[in-house]
Amino acid sequence: MKRVLFFLISLLAVGQSRQAVASCAATPVAAARLAVGESLDPVAESPEPISSTGFRAAGVHWDPLLQKLWFRVLDCKYPERPAVLVPVSLHTDGVPLAVTAAPQEPKVRTLAVHAGQTVDLLYEQGPAKIHLRGISEANGYIGDRIVLRPIASLGSPPELRLHASVTAEGEGVLLP
């Protein structure tokens, strides 16, 4: 625990000393690495190039819930923009810090077609267009292939099934 506190205090001191120089790096991750004193190229002995545009580390925050250290990185060209948080993996066993890019949040997919819902189908081939309606037998997201049974009409066999690709909520394109 003492190592972690010492490390946090030293990072704050490093961040403040580098802030006075206002050194900027090309990316937020590079700015966090520059604040720690790491180079992007582990073979290179000289530090990363410093420019007046890009990003700079403005502070360090400890997240007790996630047990992570975060660098607050600002845009040098547009300081009025909100800061970007870059996570830092913290090792107390003497291994140097590793700065990683923030994980992207998974995209939330919503169902476009529910089982039993009436779906409008379109089939185009050259100048001909066919519009049909069918009842979905399963749920489907946009881009999914679903099976439908056509709404009963005179002369259509009850076992007929259509395959379609979901394009929007309640809509699909008939597949050949």
Report strand %.
Answer: 25-35%
Q: How many alpha or pi helices?
A: 2
Query: Which consecutive residue ranges, at least 5 long each, have pLDDT under 50?
Result: 13-22, 39-48
What is the averaged pLDDT score?
A: 75
Oligomer: single chain
| Shape call | elongated
Q: What topology, given as strand order, has the largest sheet? A: 5-6-7-8-9
Radius of gyration using CA atoms only:
28 Å
- Number of domain units: 2
What structural class is derived from the secondary structure elements? alpha+beta
**Mind summarizing the main beta sheet?**
5 strands, mixed, barrel
How far is the first residue's CA from the last residue's CA? Answer: 65 Å
What is the share of helical residues?
10-25%
Q: How many strands appear in the DSSP assignment?
A: 9
N-to-C series of helices and strands: HHEEEEEEEEE
Signal peptide: 1-22
Keywords: Signal
Organism: Terriglobus saanensis (strain ATCC BAA-1853 / DSM 23119 / SP1PR4)
Protein name: Flagella basal body P-ring formation protein FlgA C-terminal domain-containing protein
